[in-house]
From TrEMBL, chain A:
<keyword id="KW-0472">Membrane</keyword>
<feature type="transmembrane region" description="Helical">
    <location>
        <begin position="105"/>
        <end position="124"/>
    </location>
</feature>
<feature type="transmembrane region" description="Helical">
    <location>
        <begin position="81"/>
        <end position="98"/>
    </location>
</feature>
<feature type="transmembrane region" description="Helical">
    <location>
        <begin position="160"/>
        <end position="179"/>
    </location>
</feature>
<keyword id="KW-0812">Transmembrane</keyword>
<protein>
    <submittedName>
        <fullName>Amino acid/amide ABC transporter membrane protein 2 (HAAT family)</fullName>
    </submittedName>
</protein>
<dbReference type="InterPro" id="IPR001851">
    <property type="entry name" value="ABC_transp_permease"/>
</dbReference>
UniProtKB/TrEMBL annotation, chain B:
<feature type="domain" description="ABC transporter">
    <location>
        <begin position="4"/>
        <end position="251"/>
    </location>
</feature>
<dbReference type="InterPro" id="IPR003439">
    <property type="entry name" value="ABC_transporter-like_ATP-bd"/>
</dbReference>
<comment type="similarity">
    <text>Belongs to the ABC transporter superfamily.</text>
</comment>
<dbReference type="GO" id="GO:1903805">
    <property type="term" value="P:L-valine import across plasma membrane"/>
</dbReference>
<dbReference type="InterPro" id="IPR003593">
    <property type="entry name" value="AAA+_ATPase"/>
</dbReference>
<dbReference type="GO" id="GO:0005886">
    <property type="term" value="C:plasma membrane"/>
</dbReference>
<dbReference type="InterPro" id="IPR032823">
    <property type="entry name" value="BCA_ABC_TP_C"/>
</dbReference>
UniProtKB/TrEMBL annotation, chain C:
<feature type="transmembrane region" description="Helical">
    <location>
        <begin position="192"/>
        <end position="214"/>
    </location>
</feature>
<keyword id="KW-0472">Membrane</keyword>
<keyword id="KW-0812">Transmembrane</keyword>
<feature type="transmembrane region" description="Helical">
    <location>
        <begin position="91"/>
        <end position="113"/>
    </location>
</feature>
<keyword id="KW-1003">Cell membrane</keyword>
<comment type="similarity">
    <text>Belongs to the binding-protein-dependent transport system permease family. LivHM subfamily.</text>
</comment>
<dbReference type="GO" id="GO:0005886">
    <property type="term" value="C:plasma membrane"/>
</dbReference>
Length: 320, 262, 290
């Protein structure tokens, strides 16, 4: 099957399945969180899985998106436009920061983004006149149920948010799949496997890395805007280091080389703390442990590992 | 004017001159071979020519234009392509995708079209797929197109790299031991392939250990020893050059040389 | 004048700590090529362990070495349980492993100790010394002296002992080191142990001045990185100079610009180094082999 169509059908099917089985508003809210995380983690897949770079500051880009929809409406910019402004700002910042750093080897990006994320967090915390400081700020009301009402579908706000985030996640997943199978995507994956060979074929390695970094920053910013609007409230913790780590862990656990890994990783690590309270309590141990264990025992992550397993079982079945 | 001209090219690592002021030129439509014992600096020379290392001294010219110090991707735009001694394939991709990556410079769709999966992007991919398949056919790997590159044998990967370099539409092709890991039959096939590539007007520069192959297909041979050029000439001149036999061939190699004579 | 001196003194004090962290990075990086994101956690483990033991009534003279031993053991465990089993994993996987380990260690500290901020009395009391109109805690002298002793001891160890030469050989060429019969696994093990020990010692010395808490490691790591990059990745002398430089820059930022943004100084330095001189002050140009 055409990979784009496959991604579209699988993601949509998951969105619909969730809507069908969720018994209460609480579930829809968690579902929205899963799709918001899927969006930002899909960005990590483009960066880590396609091109092989680690960012420890993506929460900073996420927060740029979140604060764009929180701050800009106060200056007369509508929420929808603010989302695009936030995404563009995050992408531009990534390009400016990425250009000098990405000429160098991979781990410099991890270090520089670690600093960048902290800087953004610092600004959000200290500049209270603009951001409300550590206590955060209220995000002006925006409710997608009115959109759905326009086309004659009546539903609760939480459900409307679930559908909206699910649809945006679907678009995000499909775009990432398109990219992966396109000329640019092949260039990115070539850089991942051997930057020397890629450049010998005419790929401008530094530019390819900057492009992937900027795309992933835009994904994070869009996710951030959606979270701020859905919650109606935002704090500087969205820019926190642990949030960046959480995104990387989701990608690594699910399998960073595929968008399906982003979905599975987001699903597990978003739902788990809701189901098992000790996961929320021991967040650090769980996230850190998952990262190390996945890298040591199942380096490519859950989805590729299960794919291999299914492949092997199928082969065995055929040989019998 | 030769297509590729190398003048006084040199680089040192920690005080040791890995390549010391080497000059030669290579013409279009011919096979120029670089030979020499292990550690003579052949691969380092390739890395200098292809822009992977920055040279301490000297110049590289393509069609008379000074390209010294240009990064590899710029040189690729000028028509240079290469293969690698210790394989630089893309193991996570299929054999076909590996070769399709070689079409990078031909592909004209922009990032937005790629993200949105617009027809322009899909057309480019279809075009690249066609080119890549015929290149795979040409190196005899068409039946392995859909296999992950990591499953191919060493000799097959060597040929995969040639296919990947070929689809760039290069006018200068640097081949680093293309026949390594190939059996006698495959070596012969690689041999014919290189011949055919040169006949199409490509300037081929070859590093190879198989002396029979070198003598058979080279128009011109450059001999390196300890980073310096010690001889240069037609195959028959090199074969009879005392200095080459002494410095390079040694006792074991002398027998090889006689075999090549026979 | 006395104001400037005051800033210099506090800059040198924290700079000595950053130098020790940077030295730890350099040691592991040279031996294994791994950029260890858990380096800051070693410092916190040292400080938190010492604080907990001292709170239990254990005298400093016993608590301090125990805390250093605890840090060292964690370093060895990190190598044995996470780095070594990953084998020849690509660089990006190793980076992720050390990030994971750092988060994991944070979590463990939160459980074993608590989420409070800790300090204990300086080794020579908390009465400030007066010095040309500026004040200085006696603990600062311990910190500065300690970092120089560590640097000298490490230089001697690497230069004059069999095990140290193994580390040096592994650092300069791992493959060649294997060929001449050096146990590179042991050298890497030792590098992690030493690096963690140095980090923990820095934590033990620093805590009376800088305080510590379970999540202080990231910021410490970021500043250690800045110091490493400013000095030049892979250079021990660079680590020392870079550490003091970052400490001073930070103190000046806090003193003359804004104490809110003193932590941003390190990040600005990282960016400037990357923009202007990626090799750092003492770095060497490296050439990848293909």
């Amino acid at each position: 099957m055409n990979p784009t169509l496959k991604a579209l059908l699988i993601t949509l099917a998951l969105v619909v399945a969730g809507a069908l089985i969720f018994p209460s508003s609480y579930y829809f809210r968690v579902g929205s969180l899963i799709w918001i995380n899927t969006i930002s983690v899909t960005g990590i897949v483009v960066l880590l899985g396609y091109v092989g770079l680690v960012s420890l500051g993506h929460a900073g880009f996420f927060a740029i998106g979140a604060y764009a929809v929180a701050v800009l409406p106060g200056y007369g910019v509508p929420s929808g436009a603010a989302l695009f402004v936030g995404a563009a700002a995050a992408g531009l910042l990534a390009m400016v920061i990425g250009r000098p750093i990405l000429r160098l080897s991979g781990y410099y990006l991890a270090i520089a983004t670690l600093g960048l994320g902290m800087l953004i967090w610092m600004v959000l915390t200290k500049e209270s006149w603009l951001t409300g400081g550590p206590d955060g700020m209220v995000v002006a009301g925006f409710n997608p149920r009115h959109w759905f009402a326009l086309v004659g579908i009546k539903m609760k706000s939480t459900e409307a948010w679930y559908w909206l985030t699910g649809l945006v996640a679907t678009i995000g997943v499909v775009l990432a799949v398109n990219l992966g199978n396109s000329p640019w995507g092949r260039a990115l994956r070539a850089v991942h496997d051997s930057d020397v060979a890629a450049s010998s074929l005419g790929v401008d390695v530094a530019r390819a890395k900057v492009v992937a970094f900027a795309i992933s920053a835009v994904y994070a910013a869009v996710a951030g805007s959606l979270l701020a609007l859905a919650n109606g409230y935002i704090t500087p913790d969205t820019a926190g280091f642990m949030h960046s780590v959480e995104m990387v862990t989701m990608a690594v656990l699910g399998g960073a080389t595929t968008v399906y890994g982003a979905i599975v990783g987001s699903l597990i690590l978003t739902a788990l703390p809701q189901v098992l309270t000790f996961v929320a309590e021991y967040e650090h141990i769980v996230l850190g442990g998952v990262m190390v264990a996945t890298m040591v025992a199942m380096r490519r992550g859950l989805v590729p590992a299960l794919g291999d397993l299914a492949h092997r079982l199928a082969m065995r079945g055929r040989s019998k | 004017m030769n297509r590729l001209e190398i003048e006084n090219l040199g680089i040192s690592f920690g005080g040791i001159k890995a390549v010391d002021s080497v000059s030669f030129s290579a013409a279009a439509g011919e096979v120029t071979s670089i030979i020499g014992p292990n550690g003579a600096g052949k691969t380092t020379l390739f890395n200098l020519i292809s822009g992977v290392y920055a040279a301490d001294t000297g110049h590289v010219r393509i069609e008379g234009a000074d390209v010294t110090g240009e990064p590899p991707h710029r040189l690729a735009r000028r028509g240079m392509a290469r293969t690698f001694q210790n394989l630089q394939i893309f193991p996570q991709m299929t054999a076909l995708d590996n070769v399709m990556t070689g079409c990078h410079l031909r592909e004209t769709s922009n990032l937005l079209a790629d993200l949105l999966g617009l027809p322009s992007s899909l057309r480019e991919t279809a075009k690249s797929r066609g080119l890549a398949l015929s290149a795979l056919e040409r190196v005899g790997l068409a039946n392995l197109a859909a296999r992950p590159a990591s499953e191919l044998s060493y000799g097959q990967l060597k040929r995969l790299e040639i296919a990947r370099a070929l689809v760039t539409g290069c006018s200068i092709l640097l081949l680093d031991e293309p026949a390594a890991g190939c059996n006698a039959v495959e070596t012969r096939e690689v041999d014919d392939l290189i011949h055919a590539i040169a006949d199409e007007g490509v300037c081929v520069v070859l590093i190879e250990h198989d002396m029979r192959m070198v003598m058979r297909i080279s128009s011109h041979i450059v001999v390196l020893d300890q980073g310096s050029k010690i001889a240069e000439g037609k195959p028959e001149e090199i074969r009879d050059n005392e200095r080459v036999i002494a410095a390079y061939l040694g006792a074991h190699g002398a027998a090889e040389a006689r075999a090549a004579h026979a | 004048m006395s104001e400037l001196l005051q800033f210099v003194l506090s800059g040198v004090t924290v700079g000595a700590i950053y130098a020790a962290v940077a030295l730890g990075f350099t040691l592991i990086y040279n031996a294994s090529g791994v950029v260890n994101f858990a380096q800051g956690e070693f410092v916190v483990i040292g400080g938190m362990t010492a604080a907990a033991l001292i709170a239990l009534g254990v005298p400093v003279i016993i608590a301090a070495p125990l805390a250093v031993i605890a840090g060292t053991l964690v370093g060895i465990a990190l190598y044995r349980l996470a780095i070594k089993p990953a084998g020849k994993a690509p660089l990006v996987s190793l980076v992720i492993i050390t990030i994971g380990a750092s988060i994991f260690l944070r979590g463990v500290m939160q459980v074993v100790f608590d989420k409070q901020i800790h300090r204990y009395e300086g080794f020579s009391g908390d009465d400030a010394l007066r010095f040309l109109g500026a004040t200085l805690l006696p603990q600062s002298l311990w910190i500065i002296g300690g970092s120089f002793v560590v640097f000298a001891a490490l230089a001697w160890f690497i230069g004059h002992t069999h095990a140290g030469r193994g580390i040096r050989a592994t650092a300069s060429n791992r493959f060649a080191a294997v060929l001449v019969g050096i146990n590179t696994g042991r050298a890497m093990n030792l590098s992690f142990a030493l690096s963690a020990g140095i980090g923990a010692l820095a934590g033990v010395l620093a805590t009376p001045v800088t305080f510590t808490s379970y999540d202080a490691g990231v910021l410490m790591a970021l500043k250690g990185f800045s110091a490493t990059m400013l000095g030049g990745v892979g250079s021990p002398a660079g680590a020392l100079v870079g550490g003091f430089a970052i400490g001073l820059i930070e103190a000046m930022t806090a003193g003359y610009i804004s104490s809110d943004y003193k932590d941003a100084a390190a990040f600005i330095v990282i960016l400037l180094v990357l923009f202007v001189m990626p090799q750092g002050l003492f770095g060497r140009r490296t050439t990848e082999r293909v």
